[in-house]
Amino acid sequence: MNQVLYLNAKVDIGANVVCENCEIRITPRAYVDIWQSGSLNLKNCVIKGAEPGEAWRSKDKYGCLIQSSGVLKIENCRVENLTIDSTEQWAVNSTGRVKLEKVDFCDCVGNFFRSDINFLAAEVKTENFAGQFFSSPEDPLKRLLGSRIEEEDDDDKIGDEIDDEDELDDAGEEDKERECAAFAFCDFSFAPRKKHHFSVPPFIKVTDLNIILHCNFTAQGDSDQWDSCCLFLAISDTDSCEFNDCVKILSKHSTFKNCSFENSTLCQD
Fold first, then answer.
1. Which residues contact 206 (CB under 8 A, 6 or more apart)?
2. pLDDT surpassing 80 at residue 82
3. 235-260 burial: b if 16+ Cβ within 10 Å, else e
4. Alpha-carbon distances, residue 12 vs 36, 101, 105, 240 (angstroms)
5. 54-58, 153-157, 250-254: which has the minimum mean pLDDT?
6. Does 86 or 158 have the greater pLDDT score?
7. What CA dihedral angle connects 221, 222, 224 and 225, to 10 degrees?
8. Contact of 264 with 249, CB cutoff 8 Å
9. How far apart are CA 103 and CA 115, in angstroms?
């Protein structure tokens, strides 16, 4: 607690670890592996690059800063001036559970969360963010034919309105039949990462069940940089959200209720 920590080597986490009121500086050699038996809870911390302008990059072509098959919780934290250099690497690659609550991402660049559907972001804010904030694994619409089309009668279970944060947390963490990616009360400002002979993915790409409630999305920067869309939302139940200057939102088998689209285009398939 109350320390400045330089993450400069590999750290294995197989138990429950809490880091509170710390400043965590990420060096290019940093790597954290959260085992299935482990959890990492960051509370009231500031996470940043170790040196101004210094980017994190793995020697592994498809590496990540944090690999997690356990539980990662980040609460009341600020992530700033963190750059993930390679377009094929991630800040977090999770097959476990991820929960973000009241986290600000400021002046960050790159790919940040690649996660299975057990992902919750509540009151998260991005500012001067360029890159991809969230992507579900590359198995497009893997549950679509099995759950969304063949079991249309169950859609009301998926789309039930969640009135408070506790219920939203339950939907993402406790009810295994309704595991999903969930975003609530978030304020996202984002821009495409400057293109250097590579494709520019959407800010959020969800190819599995997801719920989005009371979020604001504001696209910035050169809209021509996006390859195909700035948001890709498949199997999404979206309610009471605002979309501003989102040049193209690609949606598949999704519903949008009480949403506003200012200078934004929704393309539904």
1. 134, 135, 136, 181, 232, 233, 234, 235, 236
2. yes
3. bbbbbebbbebbbbbbbbebebeebe
4. 11, 24, 25, 40
5. 153-157
6. 86
7. -70
8. yes
9. 17
